[in-house]
Design goal:
Elongation Factor Tu (Ef-tu), domain 3, 22 strands, HlyD family efflux transporter periplasmic adaptor subunit, HH_RND-rel
């Protein structure tokens, strides 16, 4: 009798445990095996672009120097001729004293800023502290360790201001006095290191932050498309930047690149483009088309761009892959696989409830992956797709009014 009861109880328990799992499995199977897949139509900007390898060319002058160097100016900082840009340390202790001095100056500056709480309230400070903590955690998560120090300082700044605002402390005078004493000691230990000065005025770049391109514009101008392409492939003329660094003497720089003949034709009758360097200098900058040479025999094109915008990230470039944007287009982005032609009209199917509905479209721009559709969609016109429509990207036997399982 007891055995029968135990069997019944066991069966009930198993049913309770198994039935939800079976139900979940059925639902997952239905979802994963749907005969269609959708994507939401959203506003987007696309550009007609060419990716090309090439040389970034600056007017530049080397800054001589050797030994254990420490830099006194930031990369990309504009300096005048004669400005001390680096110093040479006679010993490891002297170099450590400079690093200690810089850290103490940062901490002193942080405490002085902490005492200035005008125009803020506690709630705002708590929010700043929280945001700074998130930024710090993001830096660690992304292994952006060069940004950890700044994020940590922003957190401390907010935390210190909260102490002042809440009355936990009235000021940081004692801490500042201790830091000043340590600073005076570090200055004494540092002494007067030998300095290296900028030979000319311009934008400074440290030797450990860039390569040097020894090829001149004159040499590059003489190369045809095939010769330039081979030079770029071989990395000719690119070498480590020696000495203390270099001074870029002009804000105008040039990009010499090659591309296919078909891509090169895009440069014809175009005076300006946008240029960026993915992974190196992401900011898109306006550039002027200096020249374009189409070589039918070689099947290549050589082009030269010049740009008058500069920054520390650009100054470190030499041999790079550039993304060159021609015209930009705006519209609703749709996967190119969603396109259908019915009775000679271009369109897509959208999911409307559990039905597939045909929508005519007017394509603004298209590449191999996506197409942009005009945004002024209205059913009954030549362009019927509207923002946030669920466009069916994959599906079988699609037709207007079909019930989607």
């Amino acid at each position: 009798m007891r055995s029968s009861k135990q069997k019944i109880i066991t069966a009930v328990v198993l049913a309770v445990l198994v039935l939800p799992a079976v139900y979940l499995g059925v639902q997952l199977f239905a979802i994963l095996n749907r005969p269609y897949r959708t994507e939401t139509a959203v506003e987007y900007t696309m550009s007609d672009s060419v990716f090309a390898n090439g040389y970034v060319v600056f007017d530049q002058t080397a800054v001589e120097g050797s030994g254990d160097l420490g830099y006194l100016v930031e990369n990309g900082e504009r300096v005048a001729a004669g400005t001390a840009v680096a110093e040479v340390y006679a010993s490891t202790e002297q170099a450590q004293s400079r690093r200690q001095l810089e850290e103490l100056e940062t901490q002193l500056s942080l405490l002085e800023k902490s005492e200035n709480t005008s125009g803020t309230d506690v709630d705002m400070l708590y929010k700043q502290q929280q945001n700074a903590l998130y930024d710090l955690l993001d830096c660690i998560d992304m292994q952006a360790y060069d940004q950890v120090k700044e994020a940590g300082n922003q957190y401390l700044l907010a935390a210190n201001k909260i102490q002042i605002m809440t009355g936990a402390v009235s000021n940081f005078d004692q801490a500042k006095q201790e830091l000043q004493a340590q600073k005076d000691q570090a200055e004494a230990q540092l002494g007067q290191p030998e300095t290296i000065s900028a030979p000319v005025g311009g934008y400074f770049v440290a030797s450990d932050s860039a390569d040097l391109l020894s090829l001149t514009r004159e040499q590059l101008d003489e190369m045809d498309a095939a010769t330039l392409a081979q030079s770029i492939e071989d990395g000719e003329g690119v070498q480590p930047l020696e000495g203390a660094g270099k001074i870029v003497t002009s804000y105008t720089w040039y990009f010499y690149g090659t591309c296919s003949l078909e891509e090169g034709k895009k440069f014809e009758n175009v005076s300006s483009v946008q240029i960026s360097f993915p992974g190196a200098a992401e900011k898109t900058l306006p550039a002027t088309v200096e020249s374009i040479e189409l070589n039918e025999e070689q099947g290549l094109a050589k082009f030269v761009l010049h740009c008058e915008y500069i920054g520390a990230d650009v100054l470190g470039l030499s041999l790079e892959e550039a993304k060159i944007d021609f015209e930009s287009y705006e519209g609703l982005r749709v996967d190119a696989d969603a396109l259908h032609i019915v009775d000679g009209e271009k369109g897509v199917y959208v999911k409307y409830g559990n039905l597939a509905r045909w929508r005519k479209i007017k394509i603004v721009y298209q590449n191999d992956e996506y197409m942009l559709v005009a945004e002024d969609g209205k059913v009954g016109t030549d362009n019927e797709l509207r923002m946030f429509d669920e466009v069916i990207v994959e599906g079988t036997d699609l037709r207007d009014g079909k019930i989607l399982s």
